[in-house]
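Might I ask for a little of your time on a matter of protein folding? Here, with my thanks, is the record as I have it:
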Amino acid sequence: MRKSHISILSLLLLGGLVSCNKEEVGITDESILQSNKDDILSYAGSKGLKGTMTPTGVYYATTTPGSSTVAPANGQEIEFNYTMSVLSRPAGSAVVTDKLVDSTYATKSSFVYLVDTNPGLTEGLLKMREGEKAAVLLPSEYGFGKSGSTNGVIPPNAPIRLDITLKRTRTEDQQIDEYLTANKLTPELTPSGLRFIKTLENPTGVVPTPTQRLVIKYKGKLLRSSSAFDSTGTGTYESLVTAFVPGFSEGLSKLKVGEKATIVFPSKIGYGPKGLQVIPPYAPMRFDIELVSVR
């Protein structure tokens, strides 16, 4: 995979949850946040939620404790269910009310990679344990911002409530091992963490030298995606083996001309804790690769 080329854009968090955009609406960001905090605390009190608010204004309250001691950690993938409600204080009213606006993922699993430097939802998820249920109340800055939702259901500057059930938290190795088992792939595991499965052998193929340019075909995807985020399609791509991320380069170096392989590798030899465009931070990836020729 090329180090800088990605063909499609990424989604952020839960099918629409965004960080606050910066267009002006005639009110300061600080006053929006303070108003959201006041509404969240008032609402939590009226609902009998026994929780705490972080400095960023995220309110967390356990609603059903779990028996598990397994807790999420930075860089892990979280599987969870949730429903979303919007909070509002009608004009002239002292009471903050809620309205259910999304139950799509009440039973269908949602997945997210945890990055502990991201405020908002991540702050709540990091406090949970497997099997636990919690209410996480988010200021608009970590919901739908000053624009609100595109369908108009959530107005600008509105805080939201997420009722979350944490199902599982998994390391990258656990994700990869489950993926390989589900897809009936038996790999060679290298010291770097690369999983290598040769799918087409060519015993008489040329072994490339480090200075030769490789002509390759490839298709890459995230483990939870059925579509490719980057592909040569019907064409090829030519480059030195050193032009790729380490996991991809290592996989290519194990091929002779005319051979194909499936490689799966963790983010430490991919795009790491920062990711790149459509590649989330801490995301393991799969590539199907073919070494067509060398120059």
User: Anything to note?
Assistant: The CA atoms of residues 37 and 89 lie 12 Å apart.
